[in-house]
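Letters spell out the chain; backbone shape is given numerically. Both lines appear below:
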Amino acid sequence: MPLLTTIRQSPAYLYLKTYCLCALVTLFQATPVSSRLPQIEESLHLNGFRVARAQLGQRSSVVKSRREISKERRNASSREFKITTQEPATPSQSESRARVILRRWLQRAVDLSQVKKQLRRDNEDRKTYPETEWDATVRRSSALHPKETAFIELRQQKISSHGANSLHSFLGLPEGEKVDPRDVPLIALGGSGGGYRAMYGFTAFISGCKELGLWDCITWAAGVSGSCWTLAHYYTIAYHDASDLARHYLAVAKEPAHPLSIRALNTVARSSRGVYFLIGPLVRKAQSGIIGLGIMDLYATLTTTYQLLSREQPGRTRLSRATFQFSKVWTRSGIEKAEEPMPFLTAVRKAPRGSRGVEPHEDSSASKGEPPKRALTQHQTNTLHMAPTHEDSSLDSPFAKGFFQWFEISPLEVGSPDAQGYIPTWSWGRSFVSGRSVGRPPEQHLSLLLGQCTSAPAGPLTGYISALLASLPKGTMMSRILLLLNNFARMKRWEGLWGNPIRAGHDPNPFYGVNTRSSPDNPTEKWELQGRTRLMDSGMSNNLPNHILARPERGADIIIAFDASSDVQKGSAIRRIQNFADDCHIADLEDVSAEFHLPQPRFSDSAEKKAELESKFLHQYVRVFRGRREHNGRELYVVYCPLLPNAVNPDFNPSTASFSNSYNLVWTPEQIRMLFATSEANLTCYAIGTIRQVVRQVYLAKKAQRKASILSSTGPNEEQLSTSGGAGSGLSLST
């Protein structure tokens, strides 16, 4: 039915659909009680004066007493207080309001009528979208992109004494010691999922890393779910300035609106070209042909545009096309010159039958169709002091056990190491047949990509049940009821009916008509037959992005894992590390925290409550795990930094505070500052010393190994000559 298709692809229809979603969210109390500002509707009397409702959003202010006003006027004559009374609106006021609403909707209609015209203009804008003249092909390889390989070498140069000398400064090395680029540890930083709690917490962690000099020693940064928001914002609107990003979050929080509420929708739509940024990506995706639009696509554009809307100048909110081009981050943020770590957003998809993948674990957000054995084990563990137990991993049948395939989204490529297929980031969203793209549309908006990486609402309902089980104490009535419900939902006769009606968004499958995996022993492997693929929140597999960071091709020496999950005070948090090791074939993973100097008490002489809290978590703020890669025997360190309460703010527990749950998207500035302070203090007061020791140990080990290798191949005289040469010798810089 062409007419029906035309209507469903029209901007007006998509806007109406978006408005209905926002109305539904608003109806069901989008703003939680803990984040609502007081609304006082009745008149009070204070020394003969009435309350003046100076309306600002949902805030109300109280007029001070006569004596207080007189005193303040003497001290600051410029300050004025206006006393108003609550009177019913007159007919003229009602008519005026009606005219304002009518004018607003007329302007909205004009904006909607311009969307298709603006999209056609994008198709012809070769300067902004040069990819409209390019074709894309699928790169079938497990190797890194050549530009990433060059970036790693350049980043090591930058960190060494050949560049900014960042490692020397961070470790406090002797003044005369020179750091050779080959001795620089390859450090990766990963942020967990956890909604806005993870987004704000990871921002504070990055800010602390920058202040301490650690950020300048990091090569990669990756995120899961909420941490993907942080990285996307950091590399776009914040221009890699963590302080600016924190100020932006505080400015957004002054508007107590849920990103999916009508208020947030109006805020975006009233901004300069806001309707274009809100509806344009949906129109282009709807017109692509083989895929449709779902609720999560609306969720993607609503949340991202509201978050990225600039608040620098009050009353002049705006969005920019450059903000939504993730591939352009490579040059705009200086990554091409190794000035910043290389960012990765992560997602997963359900692996096609017979394809490589990893199985879901008990700490994941989804375990649909899997036996509840692991979830029960996780639920019954309620201590963080457990030693991680190693489960036998097998390399014999990775395809039989496969369930999820991890996808990495960098400014260079979108692809999966499990599928061994990658396409340029600017080509994601195009249709592909047998490895070649069809059509040349502009790059898909970052909002749709972020929507897939943060699509936790699209997880199976059984995943929500498992997440609740992980956070409830065992033996309670609620936990027993949830266990019964969990078992019922997993029954095979109900498996097809019991699911989440909210589905992750579809995109054209770039591997359509391409072999699922290349193998010289099986040259005629079957092709992927589905033309569509569905990427989801990678927290459904593991709530840390270690699967991407630990790829053997990258050769990371250290992974710093910031974990803002809700279960960090339970045993499942440590099991997350073990699950990653099993999936990625990291053998003999063990807790070696005792080999390093543990954090020292900072508040032992303070109030009893602070000292008690610090004593409880002192040895949990940072834990060090060491494993061995099975394919080459190289060591890998995982430095685990959970988001725990500390004595800086002893009354705030990020895991249990009512406003700090993973599903709350409305925070006040005070709550954000509270989380900022807690997250940054965990790093600066407790974890940084251990991190510095691990980095030093890896640096010294790589340095000793390099010198031993040179000594064995060239002899002592030549080795001494090479280490005393100039910077251009290629073998100097180490003492």
